[in-house]
Structures are given as structure tokens and as C-alpha cells.
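Attaching the record inline, Q. Sequence:
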Amino acid sequence: MNIKGRSRASTYVYANPESKSSVIEVLRPNDPVEVQGEAGEMFAVESKRLLPPINGYIPKSAIAKRIPIVEVFSKIEMNDGAMLDPAPPDLLAIEFEAWLHTQGEPTWLFEDGNAPFLLGDKMRREFEGYRASWKEWFAEVIDNNLLKTA
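Structure, as predicted:
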């Protein structure tokens, strides 16, 4: 598994996966941890704060996992040589989702909708491998009422 993350707040590290087991360490907020595996509602972790590292268990909700940067779309080279990101980080998920269900070019790239190239079909093909995970994530966005911010 080996997910790297940080503790969200002060968190007990338990000797066993039961929350009533003995506490062997207390993580401070933002302490680095490496997830070694799962045990019910707990993660088996290796705390990187002390040397040698300490192995124990913490609640899954206590870890802020890093979100890996995934390059889904190829960059667009403009006529002047500048590179353009076809899906900028501030693009709202609802806007992207709406575009997925239509034909045509991404409306967020150019104000007048006149892209000097045909990009929509290429982006949809590149995105196809991510569609299942997107669908799952977007359902969570809807469930958590985050459409205006996601």
C-alpha cells in the first residue's frame, strides 16, 4: 500500500488496531506517516517523526493523504509556442461534467468558443481511462453538496 500522508491533528498511535489498546505515540498535527496496510477502521502506519520510526495503528480519518498529481490531458501548444493546460486547476467539476455529456470544444478555453484547433474529441479519448474513477468521485461531490466549489 505505502501511501504517504500527514496527520490531520494530534492523534494517538495505538499498539493494536483496537482503539482501546495501549497508546504508544502521539502524533502532532502535520506529522508525516506512511500507511502500511488496513485493519478495519484503522490504518497500520509507520510514524516518521521519531527515529527509529514507530509502527502502530491510527484511525483512517486521522490521515490527510496526498492527492497525486495526475496528468490526464496533453498540453496544447499554441501558435506562439506557449503551452496551455486544457483543464486548468480552477475549472469547476460541474462545468467539466457538463462538457463530458456534450459534443464540441471545451468552452472554458476561449471566451468566444472559437478554439483555433479541434481538441474536444482528443480530450475525451485521453479521459476515457479515468472515467470510472471520475464518476465515483463526482458522485461524492454531489452527495456532499460541493458542486459550487469542487
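The CA atoms of residues 15 and 56 lie 5 Å apart. Helices lie at 93-100, 120-127, 131-143.

More tomorrow.
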